[in-house]
Amino acid sequence: MKNRLFVLILMGAFASGCSRNMVDWSVISEGEIDNWGQTPYDENIILLQHKEDDNRSPFLSGRPLRQAAQVSSLGIQAIHVPEHMTALELIAKLRSTDEYTFVEPNFLPSLPSVTYRPMSTHQIASANSAIAFNDPYESYQWHMDQIQADEVSSSYWGEDIVVAVIDTGVSEGPDGFHSLIGGYDFINSDNDPSDDHGHGTHVAGTVAQQTDNGIGVRGVAPFASIMPLKSLDEDGIGSTLATTQAIEYAVDNGAHVINLSLVSEVSSTPERNAVIYAQEAGVAVIAAAGNDGRTMTGVGYPAAYPESIAVSAVGYNERLTDYSNAGPEIDFAAPGGDVDVDRNGDTYADGVLQETIIDGSFNYYFFEGTSMATPHVAGVYAVLMGAGAS
Questions:
Q1: Which one of 42, 135, 167, 233 is the catalytic residue?
Q2: Under 8 Å between Cβ of 229 and 188
Q3: 310 with 333: CB under 8 angstroms?
Q4: How far apart are CA 281 and CA 379, in angstroms?
Q5: Catalytic residue status for 342
Q6: Residue 156's closest CA among 383, 379, 380?
Q7: Is 371 considered catalytic here?
Q8: Residue 199 is a catalytic residue
Q9: CA–CA separation, 23 vs 93, rounded Å?
Q10: Which listed residue (143, 199, 256, 376) is catalytic?
Q11: Where are the alpha helices (DSSP H) in the chain?
């Protein structure tokens, strides 16, 4: 398969006239070709880092290449692919100069597969001794009981801790957040990181939904501040560039914890460099393992980087779910839910319950996935840091 993929790419290169330009394809390994064939990448943008000068404009055949963006703290440049070339051809030509630390595609990571069920809010949870606070739907948050969230004193609910949610954006509904601070939209390049999908708002709610406010549900660290950073579009698709920019923004603007409930099949040097940048700054990077049901060597990226905290998902029964990826890179398993069963007999599917926005309207939804497990861990990190841990 590797050789076949390599031959196919070479054939495509020759067909487009690349043979005339004498491209040295040996600088792209067969292993890379195999890996890059597993995930989509941007045909119009590549990512690179110059060995000598982080800000030096790259040249090709004596002509400057047009820059699309820069991740200044990391010395990473995003470069437009000239119209007469393919992304792979440009990568090969620039690598051949030996002037760059790396030259790679701009991969297009996405949300793990998302499954959810709406909650019928006409059925109000009755107050009982099992509910520590007055959030009426908390009795359906079995996942908060599983991690013993109610046993944490409000003195340690993450006050003064900032959790960056790098996702589809975050929108604030009636249940709301203690603090939703300014973020950024790296998809539309503006200061409005509103959620046009629903995933990011659900994730943020698990981290830090308000509690004891007489409305809805609770989060793990209700006093933590959420920094919304939109790196995924309305279809849940982003790019290595957007993820890298968002991590840089989070670190440079005071985040203590980063939640990454997104997955790619392949490793990316600029993305890993961004995770290392966060780790060296004392910022915890929590990432989802993915929802492909691979339990031996199935952990996706960025979770699989050694510098990330990788999270698998368990259900109400505290066992690994059928959909959850796992492998030696995993650091924690946390509640991810299962919307196909009702093991606790509360008349609702055993998903993770939070407020979110779907089709422009707020409601409470049961989601499942390692995307839901990850913010439980991010919330716990916020609680620990709120209690003084580094």
A1: 167
A2: no
A3: no
A4: 19
A5: no
A6: 383
A7: yes
A8: yes
A9: 6
A10: 199
A11: 2-15, 30-36, 87-96, 142-146, 199-208, 240-252, 269-280, 370-386
Beta-strand relationship, 225-230 and 179-180: parallel
- Smallest CA-to-CA distance from 261 within 194, 218, 308 is with 308
**d(C-alpha 198, C-alpha 365), whole Å:** 10
Distance CA 313, CA 337 (A): 7
Structure tokens at 75: 């010395």
For the chain, report the end-to-end CA distance as a whole number of angstroms: 46
Q: Which of 139, 196, 371, 376 is catalytic?
A: 371
As given in the structure block, the two tokens for residue 242 are: 């957007």
Phi, psi of 37 (to 5 degrees): -75, -10
Distance of CA 3 to the CA centre of its chain: 32
Strand order in the sheet with 115-118: 115-118, 361-368, 352-358
| CB atoms closer than 10 angstroms to residue 237 | 17
pLDDT tens-place values along the chain, 390 residues long: 333 444 344 444 444 444 445 889 999 999 998 889 888 999 999 999 999 876 788 999 889 999 999 999 999 999 999 999 999 999 999 999 999 999 999 999 999 988 888 886 544 444 443 456 789 999 999 999 999 999 999 899 999 999 999 999 999 999 999 999 999 999 999 999 999 999 999 999 999 999 989 999 999 999 999 999 999 999 999 999 999 999 999 999 999 999 999 999 999 999 999 999 999 999 999 999 999 999 887 899 999 999 999 999 999 999 999 999 999 999 999 999 999 999 999 999 999 999 999 999 999 999 999 999 999 999 999 999 999 998
For tokens 């890298």, the residue is 244
Q: What is the DSSP letter of 350?
A: B
Instruction: Look up residue 333 and give its two tokens.
Output: 């398993």
Alpha-carbon torsion angle 65, 242, 246, 56, nearest 10: -10
The residues with which 232 forms a beta bridge, in sequence order, are: 238
**Contact call for residues 142 and 207 (beta carbons, < 8 A):** no
Count of other CB atoms within 10 angstroms of residue 19: 11
Residue type, 264: S
CA 20 to chain centre: 41
